[in-house]
Write a structure and sequence with these properties.
By secondary structure, this protein is mainly α. The protein is 78% helix and 0% strand. The chain is built from 5 helices and no strands. Helix 1 (4-33) runs antiparallel to helix 3, helix 2 runs parallel beside helix 5 and helix 3 packs antiparallel against helix 4. The radius of gyration is 17 Å and the shape is elongated. The structure holds MU-OXO-diiron (FEO).
Length: 162
């Protein structure tokens, strides 16, 4: 059975992942309203991934005899200053999530919760990918900044995200 400290911390993490879903959906909606449907599609997929991250924690708690407690999700921004800035904010957000996952790993260590420590390794690896992915796109966007043709090419590529 999971301990109370870990239970509370994972419930907080479920909230963070669901907020991530909401944030990326807000970005997707902004892109679609700007006519950049490929970028919109990319962030809709990203939002779906965040939902699955939350659900993995959700099922973990039940498997460990814990109780899921859902918290209110705050409103994400409605508007964004530009394409590059969205990816800067996404990368910053992923770094924040990475820090929160590492804090959970530290807690699993101090609580001697080996089951959570093992479970969390998937998230540690996933965060490396998440940051690298956002960083790579951001790098390309900085190269094409101000070039509509380059931007449309990237819109087409991101629109093909499976
Ligand atoms: Fe669930 Fe993008 O971290």
């Amino acid at each position: 059975m999971i301990g109370n400290k870990m239970l509370d911390a994972i419930n907080e993490q479920i909230h963070r992942e669901l907020y991530s879903e909401y944030l990326y959906l807000a970005m997707a909606a902004w892109f679609r309203s700007e006519g950049l449907d490929g970028f919109g599609h990319f962030f809709e997929k990203q939002a779906q991934e965040e939902h699955s991250h939350a659900m993995k924690f959700y099922h973990h708690l039940f498997e460990r005899g814990g109780r899921v407690v859902l918290k209110a999700i705050e409103e994400p921004p409605r508007d964004f200053p530009g394409v590059v800035e969205v990816f800067e904010q996404s990368l910053e957000h992923e770094r924040y999530i990475t820090k929160s996952i590492h804090d959970l790993v530290d807690l699993a260590g101090t609580e001697k919760d080996h089951a959570s420590a093992s479970f969390l390794t998937w998230y540690v690896d996933e965060q490396v990918e998440e940051e690298a992915h956002m960083d790579e796109i951001l790098g390309k966007l900085r190269m094409v900044k101000g070039n509509p043709q380059g931007l449309l090419m990237m819109d087409g590529k991101l629109g093909a995200r499976a």
